[in-house]
Amino acid sequence: MNMSLPDDPAPAASAAIVGAADTPGAVNTEPVPRKRVISWAMWDWAMQPFNTVILTFVWVALYLTSRQFLDPAARESGLLPDGTYLNCNEAASVGTAYCQGLTDLSEWWGWANFAAGIFIVILAPVLGQQADARGSKKKWIIGATIAVALVQFSLFFVEANPAYFWFGAFAVAFGAVISEIGNVSYYAMLSEVSTPRTIGRISGLGWGLGYLGGVVALIACIPLLFAIGQSEPLAYKLVAVLCAVWTIVFSIPLFRNVPESPAYGTGAKVGFFASYVVLARSLAALFRTSRSTFWFLLAAAVYRDGLAGVFAFGAVLAAQGFGFSFLEVIAFGLAANLVAGISTILAGRLDDAIGPRRLIVISLAGLVAMSLAVFALRDLGAIVFWVCGLALCAFVGPAQAASRGLLTRLAPASQQGEIFGLYATTGRAVSFLSPLAWSLSLALFGGIVYGVLGIGLVLLIGLVLLLLVKLPAHIRAE
Fold first, then answer.
1. Can you state the angle between helices 233-257 and 34-49, rounded to 10 degrees?
2. Which residues contact residue 137 at a Cβ distance below 8 angstroms, ignoring those fewer than 6 apart?
């Protein structure tokens, strides 16, 4: 089925919301200009360096939580006569000052993430409700883009010194908060750049471009890391600047070509604190009138945290559990984003063909199976992580994109921003699950590879909860 998007961005084709504003799934029914769709999807591409380079594979994993931020005495205690450092995956090394110091850095980074999650729980749904009522989704996206870019610029000033750790940790965590707030409005605009027949593929296009953007961003960073040196702080500082410039430049198409959202007449235009009262009423009304949306938000919160855990701990598992070198971690990051991007774009069409729920179920089942395979076949070495780890990545994107598309179909058109705010909130409200399952698995069994069982368990629980959600008749019919 081909995407029916006109090539010329005629003003007459503006994305007006039509139909009953409070009817679930009442989204735009007119064809949307191709230029507008691509411009919207490019924001995923623009923001991906922050997620892929800063949060996951390079800046945090290889710089902020590395030995460069250890106390000098602890760092020197891990240095071996041949110039290499202790392998903290070996039982004999775990209790050393060097390995305990690295563990502390990772734990502290986790606490910074916890603080970010609390702020998102507090802010995301209320700001989504405000954007719905005032017609300001695009303004929030622009503000979030500029703020995330400034955060990335600020990382240039993080010196390789323990005294700068918390500055770097909270700067990145703050960027995660702002990025999530921007995502609320960005996700909520999906119904305005798609029709009921194209929600799945357009959502998949955005996620896919995001993952592919991560590939290109990693490739762009490699020359800096190798030309300046993998152990040189300047390399990571310039990587952060490169990501900031990328974010601004590739957000311009959305700024220029996607119109501001309409203000929905049913939205309550109230002050910030009064918005919490409106939010409480909306939650109660959602439970009364759209139980399927309410329970889907709960199920999605659990399995989405498992999806986040795949990438959050993937680089750590590769490096510490399977002994990947610096270059191998970067190579795996490239391959992971490439596989996730291609699979997500292709799955967007499958979403429209078989329905988003079936696609999510298939993806989650595949993720659980691959998690078990990584653990069961661990003794075969790195090849297992390459094969099964990339298979995990192939299932993550389709599940994320299909979840966004399913919620767009479920949510009333006049509450897209608010409900996507709840989507962000519910996801963050249980964001402790994957880190807790990961840490408990390590504490109970003593080997880092056991952590993948914790992530698999979270995904399995989310899958079971999703299977218990009864979708409305009109969604099942689609």
1. 160
2. 131, 185, 186, 188, 189, 260, 261, 417
Phi and psi dihedrals of 81, rounded to 5?
-55, -30
Domain segments of the chain as ranges = 31-477
Q: What is the CATH topology of the domain spanning 31-477?
A: Growth Hormone; Chain: A; (1.20.1250)
| CA-based nearest residue to 53, from 63, 40, 43 | 63
Q: Which helix (H) or strand (E) holds 211?
A: helix 199-228
Contact 150, 210 (CB under 8 A): no
3-state secondary structure of 58: coil
What's phi and psi for 203, nearest 5 deg? -60, -45
* Structural contact between residues 302 and 430, judged by C-beta atoms closer than 8 angstroms: yes
CB 206 within 8 A of CB 398: no
Contact 35, 302 (CB under 8 A): no
Per-residue pLDDT tens over the stretch 232-243: 999 999 999 999
Residue 210 near residue 341, CB atoms below 8 Å: yes
Torsion of CA 82, 83, 84, 85, to 10 degrees: 110
**Contacts of 252 by beta carbon, 8 Å cutoff, 6+ apart:** none
- Dig out the tokens for 355 from the structure: 């329905």
Higher-pLDDT residue of 81 and 191 is: 81
Contact 87, 43 (CB under 8 A): no
Q: Which pLDDT does position 243 carry in this prediction? A: 96
Check if the beta carbon of residue 307 is closer than 8 Å to that of residue 433.
no
Query: Is the pLDDT reported for residue 9 higher than 50?
Result: no
Taking each helix axis from N to C terminus, what angle separates 97-134 and 165-188, rounded to the nearest 10 degrees? 30
pLDDT band per the 50, 70, 90 thresholds, residue 96: confident
| CA 35 – CA 14 distance, rounded (Å) | 12
Q: Which residue has the tokens 């993080």?
A: 158
Residue 301: both structure tokens together: 């919160």
The rounded distance, in Å, linking the Cα atoms of 363 and 400 is: 9
How confident is the model over 363-381, as a mean pLDDT? 88
